Amino acid sequence: MFTKAYIPFRGYFSSPYSKWQGTLANFHSLELAAATVKRWFESRSIDPAVYDYLYLGYTIHQRQGFYGGPWVAAMLGAPHVPGVNISQACATSTACIYQAAAGIEVGAFDTAALVLADRTSNGPHIVWPNPMGPGGEVIHENWLMDNFNNDPYAKNPMIRTAENVAAEMGATKEEIDQLAAHRWSQYEDALKDDRAFQRGYFFSIEAPISRKKVITLEADEGIMPSPLEGLVNLRPVLEGGVHSFGAQTHPADGNGFMTVTTKEKAAELSSDAGVTVQLCSFGTARVEKGFMPKAPVPAAKQALENAGITIDEVAAIKSHNPFTVNDLYFAKEMGVDAESMNNYGSPLIFGHPQGPTAGRCVMELIEELALKGGGYGLFTGCAAGDTGAALVLKVDT
């Protein structure tokens, strides 16, 4: 349980997400993230000197990423700041927030910068030495797709974990399609009034393609409408399964940023001192191999217990839901209405760059709670290796 860690209201941003192999496919994700954060500092008149530690959350290696956090800190204008890299697949943002909150709690630093970035497009193709191979033949790995398609422990692709859970709970394709269509309608709510909801936490990306030309990304790219009438006509990806391509997330590119600090400093850095955002607790769990979509449930239960509250006291729930069955299973096990979760969007619809995904979910959770007048919020999600991670936070207005 945390008592000292706070997030300044709108002391964070998420970039819009670019579709896989789309606008951001050829840009170095760490350099682009640092440039975006630097622009955001300038737009908010924030002096980078306020930060005394940096967490870099990314999962897909980029050239010279070996230097990671310290390099990114220097690029965004804080060369005095030490930093560390954190990579935990889909739970990367959650892990960064947890580590930053723990650092505040023990007094290791006062104000942490969380830079969250990934580019799933044009992922690295890695060659490993193999001295025992015939003629020294190398071992090769496609960093993104090979790992999506093969858990070295469970020996299955990620989508198989979704179908395992769906089969165990008896979920039908009709149920899956209905909830996926509802998730699309929730994302449409975030687009109303010229994307009023998203504008609360979005910050555009400016990507230079020459000395004179810059690409600006101001809205999510490549989002596919998912009405029910379209989903029912899509065939399951796996034979005998219930998830079509419309009922699962898609790889994307993007970045984001978050400040984690003390209550006093959060008030100084907040865009509205009347809104406080306290980090309350963290939970993590691992379930049986091959059943990844189950993991958000025990992680959420742990986070709720650590916060000293029940699910009935939670005003809003946000999840990382790469497969629709994630939310069906969570709702069944936790006794909540699946349609009440993930208002204004979720990774199922807006995509999954990995490193920044959970961070965007947490930002949307804060924004929703502020609109509701405050209350407890729960974020939970699964991650590679049949693991899950969850956070409880509280917004007061």
Describe what is shown at a glance.
This protein has 397 residues and is an alpha+beta fold. The protein has helices at 29-44, 68-75, 92-106, 145-148, 158-169, 173-199, 228-231, 263-269, 296-307, 324-334, 347-350, 357-372; strands at residues 12-14, 18-19, 53-57, 83-86, 111-119, 125-128, 139-142, 205-208, 214-217, 252-261, 276-286, 314-320, 374-383, 387-396.
Protein structure class? alpha+beta
Overall 3D shape? globular
Strand residue content: 15-25%
Examine the coordinates and then state which fold CATH places here, giving the name of the CATH topology of the domain at 158-195 and 275-396: Peroxisomal Thiolase, Chain A, domain 1
User: What CATH first level of the domain at 158-195 and 275-396 would be assigned?
Assistant: Alpha Beta
How many DSSP E strands? 14
Gyration radius from CA atoms, angstroms: 20 Å
The ordered string of helix (H) and strand (E) elements is EEHEHEHEEEHHHEEHEHEHEHHHEE
CATH architecture of the domain at 158-195 and 275-396: 3-Layer(aba) Sandwich
**Unreliable parts:** none
Mean pLDDT: 97
Alpha-carbon distance between the two ends: 22 Å
**How does the major sheet shape up?**
6 strands, mixed
Helix content: 25-40%
Number of helices, counting only DSSP H or I runs of 4 residues or more: 12
CATH level-four homologous superfamily name of the domain at 158-195 and 275-396? Thiolase/Chalcone synthase
